[in-house]
Amino acid sequence: MYFETVLAVGLTLGLLIYAHEIGHFAACKLFRVRVEEFAFGFWKRLVTLGHRSGTTYAINLLPLGGYVRIAGMEPGEESPPDGFNAQPAWKRALIIFAGPLMSLMLACLIFWLIGAAWGWPTGPSRNRVAYVYPKSAAMKMGLRLGDTIVQVGDVHITSGEHMRKVIDESSSKRIRVVVERNGDRLVLHGTPEVRMEKGKKHYRLGFVPEQGLVRTSLATSFREGSLRAYGTAAALFRTLTSKRIKTDVGGPIAIVQFTHSAVVMGWWVVILNIGMLSLTIGVINLFPIPVLDGGHLMLLLVEKIRGRRLTKEQFEFATAVGLAVIAAAFVLLMYADISRLVSRTPIQ
Asked: What CATH topology corresponds to 123-213?
């Protein structure tokens, strides 16, 4: 399982990085702007994959990102004719915008196709755990994501609805639950808690059963995927502009944790996770913060309004402010990640 998690994290980072950077790269090639280096990862070079048309392709030591180094892009740098700064503002804007656009396109492609390739979770519930609520009886008894419940008390479980019915009928008595986890059978004990659902009293352990996948036609998958992509983007925007950002947004540790959880649930969840993260990257990169692509677009708009380019000093000041904002956000996200890790609280 851990090997699969490492593989999934590598696949996730690779697709997210390459989709975004290929956007910048393709736009540069379209406008005949020279790209000096296309690299996966940061810091020291690990492997040089080759050279072609003036571009060096490489893999660096730290696989925590990637970049496209475009000729003549540094502020105040004398740009060659095929360099970034030698281009008119509209071309530079399109080169910058192409990165977030490609991230959004990857997300939409995944959302459009996943229903036809794997299916959407709209079928009957299964006797498998898809989510454990924090501080619930299920969490206290040790129930985990991906556990398959095969027996409750003396009753052998045959489906998700059967499982819910047996737990509900046990009332508030302590029950014995047999689960399958990684090929082993474990015996857990817990006491269901009272929950009000549609005005009626029910007894629940506090977990969400997995829904069965139902494959759709390509047309239905496209329609459903579009609605889900829009809903995800709207929810992301609401989260990023509310107090929920403290509990609902995570950093690198959260991404690894969520990817591991996705592997447990199945590779269709890994692919869906990539789509959601790509959508997040596309949206966040359009925020008007210097260093991010949206910040570069904002500075190009300022340049257009004032009728002249920013000086090297002005650009460096704006970049320093942007770096400070990003650094502060990274520290807060890492703090939130570590706090959740210590308290064993998942992202809601």
From this structure: Pdz3 Domain (2.30.42)
